[in-house]
């Protein structure tokens, strides 16, 4: 089964499928997983490393399986 995207929904779907014995291939165009909940590390002008979140994602109580 091909799962497109490495965001939280795709990762959750891939996990459920794999737990049920399905062979999963995950495709993601970015070099890191996480989609909008991922973060990036970069250097400030003085060389100090800093980490910044790419976006916001909320977890609601209805998402009992995450």
From TrEMBL:
Any Pfam family the entry gives: NAD_binding_8
Molecular function terms, GO-annotated: oxidoreductase activity
Top-level lineage group: Bacteria
Entry protein name: FAD-dependent oxidoreductase
Matching InterPro entries: FAD/NAD-bd_sf (IPR036188), Zeta_carotene_desat/Oxidored (IPR050464)
């Amino acid at each position: 089964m091909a799962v497109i995207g490495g965001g939280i929904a795709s990762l959750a779907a891939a996990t459920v499928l794999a737990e049920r014995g399905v062979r999963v291939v995950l495709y993601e165009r970015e070099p890191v997983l996480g989609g909008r909940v991922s973060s990036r590390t970069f250097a400030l002008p003085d060389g100090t490393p800093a980490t910044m979140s790419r976006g916001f994602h909320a977890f609601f109580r209805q998402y009992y399986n995450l």
